[in-house]
Amino acid sequence: MPHVPPFRPDPRLFPFESRWFESEVGPVHYLDEGPDDPDAPTLLLLHGNPTWSFVWRGVVIRLRDRFRCIVPDLPGFGLSVRPEGFAYRPNELAEVVRGLVRHLDLQDLTIAGQDWGGPLGLRVAVDEIPRLRALIMGNTWYGPIDTWTLKAFAYAMSSAPLQDGIVQSNLFVERLLPLGVKLPLADEVLDHYRDAQPSPGMRAGVAALPRQLLEATAWLAELAEDVAEHLANVPLLLAWGMEDRAFPPAHMGRFRDDFRLVRVERLDARHFVQEDAPAELAAAIAGFLTDGPAAR
Description:
Number of domains: 1
Distance between the termini: 52 Å
CATH architecture: 3-Layer(aba) Sandwich
CATH topology: Rossmann fold
């Protein structure tokens, strides 16, 4: 049966052409926006939970005249397939992203990740170093979770009552997404997150990723070792929302310890920096890729 996306985004909010990649788990939706210049630097923008490529819209609009912006929806999110029996383990999700990178043969590549997009992007970066130019990370992590805040969150969200709330009541979109931004999201914006997962059967990925904070400990530990060993000399921009309760500024410490070429941009934002500060984030990315990684 052909894949039918859960809804059609409003072109006034999402003025992009939808493209499709036939991954091993089914059709994956992505954006490919940029100038008519085959030599334009390429950005791979990765979302987390419970968002989708829509979260990057304000950044893409501001950068697509200078950069090629590739923005996928992970399986289980946005307009992409919800594969039957898929476990939504990070290694499986990273493999899909890696498949897209290889399918498009992306070169001179800067990988940007926020929330789960961080560890997924770093895994792809380690595995595709010859393609890599730089990294951009914001309000994310790598390695096993090691703060009481994240551990408490993971245990709570993995519990049966809250798993039921995520699936049946769309808890992540209705409650946690609004808490992750400084200013209330417009109704039409929040509706685009609701409409991407309109029924319990569409929310398996959103429910699975909190469990993976604990279940993927070994995978995250291996990732941390690989990042420190293989990516230390890759230029890194940390574009960080300074009012994020889940990933406060202290979470930048590990990045700054493991990477040698780090630039920091402190943003007036909470967890979802793309929603709170798209103009500032886009300017930080453009400046980083134009001027280099000198810290400030």
